[in-house]
Amino acid sequence: MSEGEVDLNKLREELELIKAAVMTRLPFIASLLGKVRIYYSSKVSYPAAATIDDDIILGPEFLNYSINAKIFALAHEVLHIAFRDIIRGKKRRYEKLWYFICEAVNNTALNEVISIPYGLNVITMYHIRSVMTPEMYRKLPAPLEDCSKDDIYAVLKHYVKEIKIPVWVMDHCSDGISDKGELIQEGDSAFYRGRAESEEREEAVKDAVAKAHIMQKQAGRGAGALERLVERLLQSQVPWQTLFRSAIREGLGKTVLSTWRRPSRRFPALPGLKRLRRPTCWVEIDSSGSISQRELESFLTEAYSISKLTDLKFVVWDAEVQNFFNVRGPGDFKKVWKAIRGYGGTEIQPTLKFTLENMRHGDLVVVLTDGEIWDVEEPETKLLAEQVRNKASTAIFVTTSKDCIWPGWKNIRLRLSTLEV
Ligand SMILES: [Zn+2]
């Protein structure tokens, strides 16, 4: 025996029983629970904790829990690890607020499959609702239940001073635990690939989550809200931002190249002067489509990041050009958001015509839309799209749902980060 009076073997046995019991009902949780490293430490003042290295540490209070509370607590910590809550929390300015939201979202989802045991003091969506005002609800991009943690955080962070975050007792997401105590379960080495916080580790965890998800599906047991969270997590693809940046870079590269190719007028044998004209990037936003505030925000963040390289001109359009302005920085975001509340139909011809007339050779053109454009297939539209495409160094169609059919245009699907659960 070690760690004082505690019989660690008994704890190990109990853990095996819990895994077996959970396996029949919730293979998703059981599978992950079998892969994580678990410690027991008499120094931990919380019943359980998930660490930034993806370990679980149990404390003395855990031992006094009922079997149902133990199951709930273990499942709870597993979710923190599966959803990368702690690592993502470290990047947040208001860590406590972030964890508050994680607690509520995870527990509420978990509660659908493992009822919160009587007497266990946990944060749920009820607590989020109790701190929210009508103004905050209005700012959410969707009903609270459909919002991701990031959605909720993005709104609540502006009210962080007014929000009284309840004290919760079940766990503490921590990175500062150096003495983890006694090893209870070694876990799967494949799960612990790479360093904590590395991309390799993230992949390994995602891998395990995907496998656990398949097991849950094979068991034929849907897990409601939990399953929806997991599915959102698993939509894996190259982040659209990466595609967007490389398309922009490609366009900018062409601009520089063409100035090199132009021969010097005075000395035809010499290459032309490297005259670097800053190309303009035309950002054309469909205001009538079903683009959410979150999608627009994500898109504008990217647009601003390229504004160091090019001049940005924003065109807001629906059935015609509605608004046209220069945007100088993220502070102008509100201006754009306000402008895109149009209710007209979606016809892109007037916008393409406007762009063609006002753009210079080598400019970049980016259209942001949901792709539901009435005149997209009209010959006149296609011709204009082709002319814009030929004049531009690159023409990019960023769409939230329907893809582009115009030849030569790059099509990028705007999808939000896979980890925005
Ligand atoms: Zn927690």
The low-confidence parts are 257-261
Q: Write down the secondary-structure element order.
A: HHEEEHHHHHHHEHHHEHEEHHEHEE
The total of helices stands at: 16
* Rg, nearest Å: 26 Å
Bound molecules: zinc ion
Strand content range:
5-15%
Q: What does the main sheet amount to?
A: 6 strands, mixed
How many independent structural domains? 2
Shape by Cα distribution: elongated
Determine the structural class based on helices, strands and strand pairing.
alpha/beta
Overall residue-averaged pLDDT value: 82
Please list the strands of the largest sheet in the order they lie side by side: 7-6-5-8-9-10
What's the total number of strands?
10
Tell me what the structure shows.
The chain has 421 residues and is of the alpha/beta class. It has 2 domains: 8-234, no CATH class; 240-413, Rossmann fold, CATH 3.40.50. The chain contains 16 helices and 10 strands. The strands form 2 sheets. It has a 6-stranded mixed β-sheet, sandwiched between helices. Helix 1 (8-25) runs antiparallel to helix 2 (27-35), helix 4 (67-82) packs across helix 6 (95-111) and helix 15 packs parallel to helix 16 (379-391). The longest helix has 22 residues, at 240-261. The protein starts with 7 loop residues before the first helix and ends in an 8-residue tail after the last strand. 37% of the residues are buried. Zinc ion binds at residues 76, 80, 103, 171, 173. Zinc ion (ZN) binds next to helix 4.
